[in-house]
Amino acid sequence: MIKRIAVVGTGQMGAGIALVAAQSGFDTLAYEPSEKTRARAQAYFEKKLSVTPASEPGSSFTGSRIKPGMTAFCSDLSELEDCDLIIEAIPEQESLKAELFEKLDQIAKPEAILASNTSSISISKLASFTKRPEQVMGMHFMNPVPIMKLVELIRGQQTSDKTYEAVKATAEKMGKVTTTSKDHPGFIANRILMPMINEAFDALQEGLASAEDIDTTLRLGANHPMGPLTLADFIGLDTCVSILKIMGRKPSALLQQYVDAGKLGKKSGQGVFKYV
Ligand SMILES: NC(=O)c1ccc[n+]([C@@H]2O[C@H](COP(=O)([O-])OP(=O)(O)OC[C@H]3O[C@@H](n4cnc5c(N)ncnc54)[C@H](O)[C@@H]3O)[C@@H](O)[C@H]2O)c1
User: Fold this and answer.
1) d(CA 246, CA 264)
2) Is residue 276 included in any domain, yes or no?
3) CB within 10 Å: which end of the chain, N or C, has fewer?
4) Is residue 154 located within the same domain as residue 119?
């Protein structure tokens, strides 16, 4: 049974995953190497948790679970040794994730499950860097995690039924609805979303229409809650490029130019649109 969860990497996705885990009653620990990102995530936890029952007297929040005024960040990965489930949310680069999975496999207790929030990287491949491939699984949360109801579950070649059931039950305890995808680049969500986003950048580059009109057309014409260019800004343009490459698709030249210019979307304050 999953009681203690760790989240590795508290950027856009990891901070949301850790928050929802803590709010759902799991003892939650986090590891983040960047001091700046750690401080931002800590402030986010304090702001969000201070208005939930978690801060009320008699709350069931105990131990080192993330909660207001208390740092549940560990300074070393080795502190995750007693976690039941470790969710990785570091950048979408196979080499980085491979190195981390190798380390986590050595640190985590034998029965622990290692999950990845990857958008597109093969779970079977990540599992191959561990000696516990049957306990490795994809747990793909959507952005922003506290608002989006879906978690896409991905079984690797060797993921056991026991691991799948435990991760599914954990996602459901976090209030999420799950779908299950085969381990194929992009899974369900990005296989369908990324070609649309890439096409939107090509259309913008060709001068088909303004960025605003491309987004408005999809919002009001296809009933999407946000247009593809805004969605790309929210995902992170660097992450979109990585996902497209892993899916074997050539990123739009304009999308690549934004990334080369350091315009990564909402997280950097500027992508196709500006964010203050
Ligand atoms: N952004 C989205 O909309 C979205 C949605 C679903 C899934 N994802 C996936 O989630 C993962 C994270 O994406 P993100 O948007 O949160 O990225 P991000 O860049 O906002 O955050 C990544 C964090 O990982 C940290 N990090 C880097 N290397 C590390 C390491 N070796 N060990 C520990 N931490 C490390 C960074 O300091 C950073 O804070 C990616 O795999 C991405 O594909 C993203």
Assistant:
1) 18
2) no
3) C
4) yes
